[in-house]
């Protein structure tokens, strides 16, 4: 395996449209890096440039000690797993797995040993004599994964490989892929992985680190816990987390103490909270995750009075939607703590937990509350 580096990588198309804006990214040897972002953010374009399926119009892609900008895909030491599996329909699973090795004209006994090993790791031994049309979606994806694994490449590239599977299969395949990555690492065969998805659940549960992208720019690169707890900007804060973070315009003022004002309502910020906010007085974007918003009685000190607009019963929890001074909020309440007498139209207080308040710059979106 090898380290992967992108240095000032750009992609500009013939019509002048710039899809990727000079991004820098290092994926350590054996690391599982996830590229995540909304549709059109250029995460797949970036992956295809690493693979050599898209030309690079600026910057440098390096795999190990080799600059691969001008190398064809087959010479880059990569293996790619696609969304649509890309299995050869006329070949049985055994030949699909071994196809890349046969192209290299390896000895027959070596190919057979590699096929047996990979099929054992992925638990697809019973499928070796089936055609792709005889496989379920999960089985086909495991075969596609095996075809990449058998090549023992420098870097594995995954392009939304689970998006065609149902929710239950996606969950099981997430576990299978991450378990395989950890097993290879434990066996001294670390696999360097770049995994593209638009699904933040996949990103948060699979990645050692996550690269959040928007419009061809990198917004933040960090481990899952840091992205959730310390988002660098309002975009990352709103993209990571379910339900998404509440982001509303407020006014910050400092006098005898720091105050946050929403419309005609104000709450005082404790000194430990105010001390880590380095935004100037004036309009700010207030961010608070639904899990960090307590529902209390209206009129409670430190809470905004609001009106319930909807209640979503999710089984283990309730998503309470409310409006305060024209701003929409969602609060997540554990089902056992939910007051079943509450209904749409009732008044409640919404109390942000001070240690979990985020303050973002209105113009740049930068998080101004990170100590």
Detailed description of the structure:
With 371 residues, the protein is α+β, with helices and mostly antiparallel strands. The protein is built from nine helices and 20 strands. It has helices at residues 43-51, 93-103, 108-121, 137-149, 167-186, 200-206, 224-229, 234-239, 271-274; strands spanning 4-12, 18-27, 32-36, 58-63, 66-67, 78-81, 155-159, 192-197, 209-214, 217-222, 246-254, 258-262, 265-268, 282-288, 293-296, 304-313, 317-324, 327-334, 347-352, 358-360. Strand 12 and strand 13 (265-268) form a beta hairpin. Helix 2 packs across helix 3 (108-121) and helix 2 packs parallel to helix 4. The longest helix is centred in the middle third of the chain and has 20 residues, at 167-186.
CATH class of the largest domain: Alpha Beta
Shape: elongated
Poorly predicted runs of 5 or more residues: none
Q: How large, in whole angstroms, is the Cα Rg?
A: 25 Å
Strand order of the largest sheet: 6-7-8-3-9-10
Strand content: 25-35%
Please report the distance between the alpha carbons of the first and last residues: 37 Å
Largest sheet descriptor: 6 strands, mixed
Count the strands? 20
CATH architectural group of the largest domain: 3-Layer(aba) Sandwich
Keywords:
20 strands; OB fold (Dihydrolipoamide Acetyltransferase, E2P); Rossmann fold; 371 residues; 24% helix; 9 helices; five-stranded antiparallel β-sheet; alpha+beta; ABC-type maltose transporter activity; single chain
């Amino acid at each position: 395996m090898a380290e992967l580096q992108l240095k000032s990588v750009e992609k500009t198309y013939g019509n002048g449209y710039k899809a990727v804006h000079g991004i820098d990214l290092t994926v350590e040897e054996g690391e599982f890096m996830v590229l995540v972002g909304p549709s059109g953010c250029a995460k797949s374009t970036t992956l295809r440039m690493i693979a050599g399926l898209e030309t690079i119009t600026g910057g440098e892609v390096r795999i190990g000690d080799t600059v691969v900008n001008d190398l064809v895909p087959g010479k880059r030491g990569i293996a790619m797993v696609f969304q649509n599996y890309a299995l050869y329909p006329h070949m049985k699973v055994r030949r699909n797995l071994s196809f890349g090795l046969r192209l290299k004209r390896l000895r027959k006994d070596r190919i057979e040993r590699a096929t047996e090993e990979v099929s054992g790791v992925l638990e697809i031994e019973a499928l070796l004599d089936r055609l792709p049309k005889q496989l379920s979606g999960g089985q086909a994806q495991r075969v596609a994964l095996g075809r990449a694994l058998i090549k023992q490449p420098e870097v594995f590239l995954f392009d939304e490989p689970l998006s065609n599977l149902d929710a239950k299969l996606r969950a099981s395949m997430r576990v299978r892929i991450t378990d395989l990555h950890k097993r290879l690492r434990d066996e001294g065969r670390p696999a360097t992985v770049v995994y593209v998805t638009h699904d933040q659940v996949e990103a948060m549960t699979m990645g050692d680190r996550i690269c959040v992208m928007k419009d061809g720019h990198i917004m933040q690169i960090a481990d899952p816990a840091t992205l959730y707890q310390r988002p660098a900007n309002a975009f990352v804060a709103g993209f990571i987390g379910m339900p998404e973070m509440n982001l509303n315009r407020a006014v910050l003022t400092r006098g005898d103490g720091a105050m946050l004002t929403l419309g005609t309502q104000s709450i005082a910020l404790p000194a430990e909270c105010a001390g880590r906010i380095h935004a100037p007085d004036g309009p700010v974007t207030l961010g608070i995750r639904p899990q960090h918003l307590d529902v209390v009685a209206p009129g409670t000190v430190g809470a905004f009075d609001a009106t319930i607009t909807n209640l979503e019963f999710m089984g283990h929890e309730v998503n309470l939607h409310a409006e305060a001074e024209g701003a929409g909020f969602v609060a997540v309440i554990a089902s056992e703590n939910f007051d079943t007498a509450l209904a749409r139209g009732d008044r409640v207080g919404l109390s942000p937990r001070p240690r979990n308040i985020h303050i973002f710059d209105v113009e740049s979106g930068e998080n101004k509350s990170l100590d």
